[in-house]
Batch of 2 targets.
Target 1
Amino acid sequence: MAERPQGLTITIHETLDPARRAAFEHVEATAFGDHDPTEGEHRELADRYSSEADTIGYLLATVGDELVGTIRLFERPVPFHERTVRLGGLGGVGTHPAWRGRGIAEAMVHAAMDELRRRGAEVAYLCAVPELGQRLYAKADFVALGRPYTYRGRSGTAYTDHDGWLAPLTAPALCAAMLADPQPLDLAGSNW
């Protein structure tokens, strides 16, 4: 692992004031700015990732006064056979390109997992391409779901994707059962 920058501070906020929100959104846009979506793609992304009501916090990584990384934290109840699971989620895990390769994302993911655990979430979920999942998220005990998951966009459109990852938080046996289940995982809402 790369040596983390001196002075790296990670904080979690339930809400963001306008200045922090603008900085957060700037880092998020910069971190994911390698693709300029068409208007149609932008509409579809906004439909798929419309979980504002599930947001429970914002993780900010700073070095000095500079915001260098961000994560959105989510939680919602999801059905799993005869029970309801408190599913915690990480979304928009991003590091400003100028600060990549220094262990910031790894530190943020571990802090996010600690926060979700502290809040009582049982299992953590995120979506990520396999390369990133293996390089970053597996270090925080995430395992590729290995099957489809389903969710609904804000419009009501049903979506199915295959890039889900789960990790145990407060219920390792439940996470193992969810990973072993052959049925598609129902996110019971939109994606994170």
Target 2
Amino acid sequence: MTSNLKKSIIQAIALLLAALILAGCSGVSTEVTDTAPAESQTEPLPSSAGPGTSAAEPERTDEVSSEPEHTDEPEPGTSDVPEQTEPLPVTTEEETTAPPPEETPWVFNNHVWSCFLDACYPAEYRDAFFALCDALREGGDSFPCASREIYDFCMDEVTHNQLYPVACTQITGKSPDGSVPFENGAGRIYYKKSKTDFLERQRVFIQNIEAIMEAWIRPDYSEFEKCLSLYEYFACYYSYDYDGKLDRSKDGSGCATLKYRIGVCADFSALYAYLLMQSGVDAIAVSNWGETDWTGYHSWTFVDIGGKGYHIDPTWGLKEDKSVEVFILDYFMMTDADRAAYGYPYELLEAFLLPGRYAKDCVGYVFSATDDSFRLPDFSYCSRYFPDRNVLFYRNATIGPGEFEFIYE
């Protein structure tokens, strides 16, 4: 039996089980519909009841300089979304007179990096890229850089898409006027459009990232909870681009996916990793061609939590029916064995770290996931979770009716 057939059978069973699970939940629709661009579907509030996970999708500001070209249906990513609603704190009678604690607004992290890159690239690469990001924030024209090789790394669109998505397709290292791109320890920044246009794009991008972080990540979240919350965010608000409508040529993969909330596995895995790195979790997009021709190419996200690796697949975790309030956990915090069961064994893993570097080039990190302490039984659907109590509730029709409790460290 091919891996694709196995996956199709498992997904069909999962959908049936989800219907059985939700049949007992009052007010929850069990109708499954075809995936469509994100904005054509009803956007529910996140299903989790824990503090910080009941906020609505943050309001986003679309870039006026990059209008979508789709005219045959409502444009994805352009409908109004409700303002974030803060959940009321749970208090006792003695605490009712105490004012709620003030939360510090989320501040955009201009320097995104991960332990995987540290294991593969010398510190000079990181330092130069951070200098580039700082220059871009100010609309600068150059940045300090140790060598031409490092300059090429910093100006590569792959690097931008993984670590500073708003720069992807917007700047280049190719001189349009005959000037020398790199000399005397400094690299030039060439803006493909006007600098004013880029600065406005950057402002909108930063505002949107801060809104997502503010709505979905709390300061006291553990790394596991950050992974879970952003995994739910993708499941609720993003849809697979079956029709190939996403145009990445204007905004790059990351910004286009963020703006229109549609994409494919390569888009989702990179954007999910970027948001995790923004929150302080070590993450990177990885891929695999699979064990057979039928398996096909696929990309997902690899994370490191407490020195242990895990596979997370935000694409396979997307909800086909956005009105369903639970989301599947089969593709969350997977081990190598879990990933291999779907036709993507560890030995075929490709971690395209950044330009010209793969996982096999790393001598300081082994991309392996063997810890199963966060795994739940197959066909488990998260119904709610409470980060303040380290508890997650899930439903699983193969085990029995009702909710089951999972306590994590």
